[in-house]
Amino acid sequence: YHAKQKGNHYLFFNDSMNEQAVKRLQIENLMRFGLKEDHFVVYYQPKMDIKSGLLVGMEALVRFITPKKGIISPGVFIPIAEETGQIIDIGEVVLDKACKDVKRWIDQDLFDGRVAVNLSAKQFSLPDLTTRIDIILQKNHLPSYFLELEITEGTVMDDPQEAINVMRSLSARGIHLAIDDFGTGYSSLAYLKQFPLNTLKVDKAFVDDMHNERGRNMVDSIVTIAQNLELHVVAEGVEKADQLAILEELNCQTVQGYYYSKPLSAEEFTEFLKQQKSVKNKQTTPNLKVV
Ligand code: C2E
Ligand code: MG
Ligand code: MG
Ligand code: MG
């Protein structure tokens, strides 16, 4: 109500706008404190090969666990962190923790694929982005081969020419690049062809819409675009067996979603990897005996 008492501010501030501003400020302060106190934790969601049902990779997803307000969802704090610039520090914490965890899983012989880390627009436009990534990889003794970065269409279409340069320097290091939430932004197909990409991620909204023919046609079109550009396709937010069946029919190779697993804590993911390893051993042992 403070703003209301000051001159004619009340003309522009209603209660709900004021409430929103207060909430944003609260979250900004919680994030500043959380960065100091290590309240940002990384969860991992498996990416599964449809045909074999085996794990092929995982996505690192940040969780903000505050002692007083409980877990704050990325949908709430990421947009605010983008605006305040705190996403740069949060993103580095996530990358550092993801590298550390994956290095451990590789050393334990539980994993030898890539971890996908989301990269925000603010991070992508940092002039020293590649140096920052190199430093974090080196610190964790993790070769760049094990890293994939997920970026949105908006991030790369803002300044496509510059984006090509940044993506080339990342790609030259062996880092894989994925377009996240593909189809929800506006990508120019002409540019899509020029980007050194590896993967298109089909947004959950399209997967949810596959119960009707037009929806299925949309996913079919996205898979075709990916095939024509020789890109890998990952469908996000797969929750049901019938969605999985349609995606297999449409030649989508990889899926991520609650059907296989929700995002897991590092400890839970370790168990998931151990389970996967025993399934894999059972599937390959008979063949090995023949050889
Ligand atoms: P995203 O990168 O598209 O990540 C996929 C989101 O879909 C995750 O939400 C995941 O938990 C959710 N998801 C996966 N499978 C299913 C499913 O079967 N059903 C449903 N209902 N949801 C599913 P989450 O973890 O809440 O993250 C939301 C968004 O926040 C992410 O979308 C990403 O844009 C952003 N984000 C998360 N972690 C980071 C991060 O470390 N850095 C940055 N810059 N952004 C992040
Ligand atoms: Mg993502
Ligand atoms: Mg996504
Ligand atoms: Mg999404």
TrEMBL record:
<feature type="domain" description="EAL">
    <location>
        <begin position="24"/>
        <end position="277"/>
    </location>
</feature>
<protein>
    <submittedName>
        <fullName>Diguanylate phosphodiesterase</fullName>
    </submittedName>
</protein>
